[in-house]
Fold each of these.
Amino acid sequence: MAYLRDNLVKKNDPLFLIAKVRVSVPISSQNFQNGKSEFDYLVSKGTQIQIGNIVEVSFRNRTIWGVVYSLEYETRIKHSKLKQILSISGVSPIKLCNLEFLEKVSEWTMAPFGQVLRALLSAPNAYKDETPIFYYSLSSAAQFEMEKLSKARKKVINWCMQKPPVSINTLCKEIGVSRNTINSMFQEGQLERVQNSLKPKEDTQTILKHLKTAIGAASKLNLSTEQQQAADQIIVHENKFNIVLLDGVTGSGKTEVYFELVKRQILSGNQCLILLPEIALTAGWVDRFNRWFGFTPYIWHSGITASKKKIIWRDINEGYPGVVVGARSALFLPFSSLSVIVVDEEHDVGYKQEEQVIYNARDMAILRAKLAECNIILASATPSLESWTNMLSGRYQHITLTNRYGLATMPDIQTIDLTKNKPLFGKWISEPLISNIKEKLNSKQQVLLYLNRRGYAPISVCNGCGMKQSCHQCDSLLVTHRLSNLLRCHQCGVARPFENKCQSCGQTDTIQLVGPGVERLAEEVYELFPDARVTILSSDTLSNPKQIEPTIQSIEKGEVDIIIGTQMVSKGHHFPKLTCVAVIDGDFGLSGGDLRAGERTFQMLTQVAGRSGRENQRGTVFIQTSEPFHPVLQALKTQKRDNYFKLELEMRDSANMPPYRRLAAIIYSSIDETAITTYVKKLANLKPQFEDVYIHGPAPAPIYKIKGRHRFRFLVNAPKKVNMQKIIHGWHSSLVMPAIIRRQIDIDPYNFM
Ligand code: ADP
Ligand code: ZN
């Protein structure tokens, strides 16, 4: 009996309750045990606590945040060992659909639950209760003789007699006295203070009223007939789980179509989420939102301040109506009345998070919409083949926009055959392209040169010994950056100053730079067009929406003649004066081992081409290539996208590849090469056997060494209906993983390196 008393907190125990708290610490125990990061804590009975409450607990000698997942009477832990919950946050409990979402994301990605929970608990300031602020005033009971008081105290009393109560900070600043003076006056009873209750936030109805007024006063959105038809078709399925593929050519105004739907939901007091690739979230985009809505949305990305995050997180958790526009991490905000999700540029690889929790935000958004039973709109001019096949099979509703909005027409696309028009040695712009650019510049049009290579030159080779300069901790060549004068590894980011000296043989002045990067292309442009105003758009100099803003604006205003850009330019920007786009290397990415190389090149080129001629003047696109008859380029030129999709899909089908089947890449890495080799061999011997499921490997990963870690890869290939996670789980639980080894599971991998 005594034993039981010690081990169970019984139902009739009047004193305690057990809270099962999930903590935001990834417990990636070797064999997935307690992958849920759930621990038991004591709560005194009578405490106001609910499922979903954010609580502060002591965990491994630290104080951390967690979420209450259930409240029970029983525990397996010895009563004497249980700790109390330290505090309960004053914010509303997280809604159950969010808790369920986290669980499903963790199941799908196989990431430890605590790591996924971190994505939700992303604004620590939001659930920390504010330190109370006290307002000081003259004590009503105070008795004192003015003459006997110090000068400072007299000033305080005079001031307080005339003004309403204020905080100690204000008092000190206004009167010029020390905090000590105020504190002692309070202790001696001359001043009294009241706790300033936090200004209560307006209630949902008042906020909704404000939003309605703003929308009423904003410009009225007039959709074109085609846009209106699209919107009408989507509205039919409003307020239930329905996946729409909004497939419209670049410049067709897909944005305006989904704005119309978002507006309807806001007017009914709901919450909406618009996901964008991070770099497309510019002031221009927000202006456009403002124009039609009359208010600013909640903006969420890596660059926003902690104080803004706090406001957004709280408002969303409280269930206030509003629109969140954000990068992929916005998906993990604690929504409580989500009624539509938009994933704009749904094909964008930026939606794939490659570290910690490895997930595709588009796919997780679909999961979220399913749990919230709401509409989800996937918008793109170049849908991913995954979404395309789902549309073909009838899982997604297909809505098309075939015309550009207004007077804009689709650009004219021409290829320049590099085998016949070879640029001079060490140069990258061919003769026909030079004369076309000249012509555009003469008629005051803007030109974009697209080259998806950062830096100055991708390869630097020693003429003395023939060695290519490479990273000491990765199997990767160093890229020369002239603007920063660095040699940089694009795998691990390591950089060292550029010197004309071979790191292998030590000879000086022997380094030859091979191949172009945007900086080198700029050098050629300066020589060819000395009068042109040139700007480089590359993530080396501009890495978040804030930094990119001034450059984007000067391009929009026409203060730039030639833009030289990496893939960063292809994302959703609208440059009204741009009429000519030239793709410098139209072969890049068409071959190589990557499953999606062709698809990605097609998307990239379509998007880049789509930047051209977006207003009245028709745009032109030149693609320099040595394979003008490649099917990707033919499809682009003739604007027969669907033919290309068909061809690409036939290839995928016959190769047993996604989107027809599912892949998982499992990478094991370690600095200890012997340990990793032994371990993956043992795992290989334990490979499970299932019908039609293939487990390839272990093979050294294509980039075998990154940051000093040796990497081996298994690739699982299975039919889509198979529960791959379960197979992997069973297999990997059968062998203890030494602490020196790291495992990374990537379901639906995009990166095969
Ligand atoms: P997409 O997103 O489909 O690539 P955009 O959204 O960039 O195309 O639309 C092209 C341009 O047309 C934008 O400048 C946009 O503001 C404008 N536009 C589209 N639809 C409308 C509309 N209904 N009313 C006014 N302007 C519109
Ligand atoms: Zn490196």
Amino acid sequence: MFVIFLGLPGAGKGTQAARLASQTGLVHVTTGEIFRENIRNETDLGKKAKPFVESGRLVPDEITIGMLLDRISQPDCADGCLLDGFPRNTSQAAALDEALSAQGRAIDKVVYIKVDEEELVRRLAGRWSCPGCGAVYHETSEPPKEAGICDSCSSKLRQREDDRPEIVVTRLKVNMEQLQPMLDFYRAQNKVSEVDGARDAEVITDALKEIIAG
Ligand code: AP5
Ligand code: MG
């Protein structure tokens, strides 16, 4: 099963995909995390992606599409995956459809996690992530047991470079421009379910599980 998580920055795509992956066994594929890992490791891909990621703009399709198609052709995605952060525009959506259809596969569901802009800004300003295991916290809604320290692996938590307020403005603008055309693209295929993402994370996970099972 291939499930796409659509939503603006801070909507909870990563949080929900991680929760569902641990509860369902489906693999969580996140393009943002692939880019950040390559930037940390200073790979060629990381060097190309860095100026885009750190300024809140989309990495060009020539780089992103090939990287994602390569990732989902790995054996752990043979039965599908949860796609978080891809596609980001209709060219990426069309390239994904084409690649899956060539293998006799298709996207099964698209979930749009909807959250208003004020709450998105609040979430991004208070997000702390673990560089060790990737766990994500929020200083008020999902705090770690000890401030600044990961509950799971005890690494020191960090804030993302692109969560600085001036970069958040760009990320929201760039993603808002692309969201509606993507929703139209998948609504034409009757694949979109909309979820109210302003509720507690557990309630949203239950709603997503029902959608995926249905
Ligand atoms: P990416 O890493 O995907 O960033 P994003 O889309 O901006 O989304 P976020 O990760 O910021 O938000 P999220 O929805 O995952 O929220 P989270 O669960 O963390 O991409 C980064 C960059 O990489 C892009 O800007 C671009 O440059 C590049 N890139 C990636 N993919 C690309 C592509 N396909 N094409 C081109 N470029 C690409 O939650 C946020 C916070 O809220 C956390 O603190 C969390 O604890 C809290 N929270 C979550 N749920 C709840 C809840 N229900 N209630 C209260 N708090 C909550
Ligand atoms: Mg994320």
